[in-house]
Amino acid sequence: MSSTPNEKISALHEAQKKLFATSKTRPLMWRKQQLAKVVKFIDECSTQISDALTKDLGKTAFEGEVTEIEVTKLEALEAIENLDSWSATEYVSAPGALMPSFCEMRKEPRGVTLVIGPFNYPFSTGFGPAVSALAAGNTCIIKPSEMCPATDKMLRDLIPKYFDPEVLAVVSGAIPETTKLMELEWDMIFFTGSERVGKIIAGAAAKTLSPVILELGGKSPLIITKEMPELEAMANRIMWGKTINAGQTCVAPDYVLVQEENVEAVLEAFKTSLENMFGKTNEQIKNSTFSRNVSVDHTKRLISMIDDAKSNGGKIVTGGSEYGDAKAKYFPPTIIYNPGPKSKILTEEIFGCILPIIPYKTNGDAIRYINTMRGTPLALYVFTRIREHFDFFMDAVPSGGAVHNDVLLHFACSTIPFGGLGTSGYGSGHGKHGFDSFTHTRGVLSKPCKGIFEFGGIRYPPYDRYGGFS
Ligand code: NAD
Question: Which among 1, 294, 316, 427 is least buried, having the fewest CB atoms inside 10 angstroms?
Answer without folding.
Answer: 1
